[in-house]
Design brief:
eight-stranded parallel beta barrel, about 300 residues, TIM Barrel
Length: about 300
């Protein structure tokens, strides 16, 4: 049976660095990832949503995967995105295996809506191409019925489900299907700024979550994770109120800012990872200043709150 061991820690979704000629800068990708290892993420999800999977050629993708594997040097699992047109998804799966990744996050297929049988066939086609474990991403035009998840969990390559749709009733049914399967399935909350919803997901048996903000504010996000696991509601609420809620308000001003702001935050931290690729846009000067203020407040909270400071 295919397995994937991810420690119970914050999950790291790094940005993809581009140079001044809009080429992937593998050295900067590796530097970005290596610079977060001391903050003890549970896994690295490279070339996924925060890493602009949608904007990467196969050569770009290979460069990112290679950099991520080199930067972690086997210390934590590296998962990479695979999705879009089926041929592209299969090529990503091959590249990920060749470059030493530990697993795949299967993104939605390209553009089209599809019946449940087609979505199942899409996952199964990728599973047949690779020996890597798969985490199925339930979101956008790849939303699965509980019965479809039950069928997919019969495939030994499928080891996890990531929910990006936000329907807790459906997510709960997925958890129940996993229990019925008798398998130990990984579950992830994949909503934007997942810290805002993770308490609810934890309650239904979805313990792990994407933390895009970890890429730019690792101490704040790790502190929230520690407070969440400890059941420390006052610390959680203060971080949600004074850091994550202002961040979400800024994020919601412009489509795509869930990625753009994180990349801007990494630049504010001193790493010149470049801007986002079209069709996304970078924040303007005023928005960048607001982001800087939010990040600064997060660092103040780390210093003010004993629970966070000890994380």
């Amino acid at each position: 049976m295919t397995t994937l061991d991810i420690p119970d820690r914050v999950l790291f979704f790094p940005v993809t660095a581009f140079d001044d000629r809009d080429r992937v800068d593998g050295d900067l990708v590796a530097q970005h990832i290596a610079g977060r290892i001391d903050d003890r993420p549970g896994a690295v999800f490279a070339a996924c949503g925060t890493g602009e999977f949608h904007a990467l050629s196969l050569d770009d993708y290979r460069a990112v995967v290679r950099a991520a594997v080199a930067a972690t040097n086997g210390s934590i699992p590296v998962l990479t995105g695979a999705g879009g047109p089926v041929g592209h998804a299969l090529a990503c799966a091959r590249i990920a295996a060749e470059e030493g990744a530990d697993g795949l996050l299967v993104m939605p297929p390209y553009l089209v809506g599809a019946p449940q049988e087609g979505l199942i066939a899409y996952i199964e086609r990728i599973a047949a191409e690779t020996e890597l474990p798969l985490v199925v991403y339930h979101r956008a035009n790849a939303q699965f019925a509980p019965a479809s998840i039950a069928r997919l969990l019969q495939n030994p390559r499928v080891v996890g489900i990531k929910d990006g749709a936000g329907d807790l009733q459906i997510a709960q049914q997925f958890v129940l299907e996993a229990e019925r399967s008798g398998r130990d399935i990984l579950f992830f909350n994949g909503l934007l700024t997942a810290e805002m919803t993770q308490a609810a997901y934890s309650a239904i048996g979805v313990p792990m979550y994407s933390s895009a903000a970890f890429a730019m504010a690792p101490r704040v996000t790790a502190g929230f994770f520690t407070a969440l696991r400890a059941g420390d509601l006052p610390t959680q609420h203060r971080l949600l109120d004074e850091f994550f809620t202002p961040l979400v308000a800024l994020r919601d001003e412009v489509p795509g800012f869930a990625i753009s702001l994180v990349k801007a935050g990494v630049r504010l931290g001193g790493l010149p990872v470049g801007g986002v690729r079209a069709p996304l846009t970078d924040p303007n000067a005023a928005q960048t200043d607001r982001l800087a203020q939010i990040l600064a407040r997060g660092e103040e909270l780390v210093a003010e709150l004993p629970e966070v400071r000890a994380a």
